[in-house]
Amino acid sequence: MNIRQLEAFHTTIETGSVTLAGERLGISQPAVSKLLRSFSETCGFQLFTRSGGRLVPTLEARMLAAEVDRMFAGTKRIARLAEAVRNREWGEVTIAAPAALATRYLTHALSPFLAEQPDIHLTLQSRNSPRIGELVAAGQVDIGLSVLPFEQPNIHSEVIMRFAMVCVLPAKHPLAEKQVIEIDDLRNESFVSLPRDDCSLMTVDRAFQMRGVQKRNRIEVPLSETACSLVANGVGISIVPPFVGLDYPEDRLVRRTLLPETFMDVWLLTPGGRPPSLASQKLVEFIRAAVSPFDQRFRPRPS
């Protein structure tokens, strides 16, 4: 038996007519009849009888039709899956990002996309930038976001955002009255700091060293969001990425421009040895849009 015989049989069962089956398949009635005869010979039993001018399937044909129907239902599912993949509505994507992005902002930003694409299966991992580079190079994640560049042949990398760190203060802190905070203003202030190996902490510490200001680290926490929580509760101040702590109202936590501006880049990393899936491409487009409000690359510097 072949697929054309099965199509003729399946369509004839569905329509109850050789003529209608031919119209649906785009072939002549004699062609359908020929396919049914050859299919009956292959099966070794009669498929249809005539009763009052109507084509009636035999009991054996009805038994066979149930299995054939399941087969064609499977092909329809494959067709729908192919269409969903083509339209980038289905797929499995793994993203690895630093905690400052993965903990809250990225999940919030991607929620509308995921709500509209229920057949895209996403895994979001929080990792430090060196580990993210290793995972991308090994092909274990589809999309990596890193604050460190990687120049390796098996990693494709590009900058998708340059952001300026901001100073966060309790709403009742005396410095909260200023719209711009200079590093010199932070001398002797009590800091909520990130771990010593955190890339953003290294960048902030360099800015303090260049101004000759001693930074007083009072509390060390693992995440920028944790730092914002302590600041909102009046424990100290901190310097964090601009996409962190956005959920706190201004009567608890204020965000101020930091001068001199302290910039960090976010690199988009993808495996270089294989083309990205259509679902990954769509997620990359969404991530670009999500980080664009904080991108300082094409904005004029303040005078």
From TrEMBL:
Belongs to the LysR transcriptional regulatory family. Keywords: Activator, DNA-binding, Transcription, Transcription regulation. The lineage of its organism: Bacteria, Pseudomonadati, Pseudomonadota, Alphaproteobacteria, Hyphomicrobiales. InterPro entries: LysR_HTH_N, LysR_subst-bd, NocR_PBP2, WH-like_DNA-bd_sf, WH_DNA-bd_sf. Residues 1-58 form the HTH lysR-type domain. GO terms for biological process: positive regulation of gene expression. GO terms for molecular function: DNA-binding transcription factor activity; sequence-specific DNA binding. This is LysR family transcriptional regulator. Gene3D superfamilies: 3.40.190.290, Winged helix-like DNA-binding domain superfamily/Winged helix DNA-binding domain.
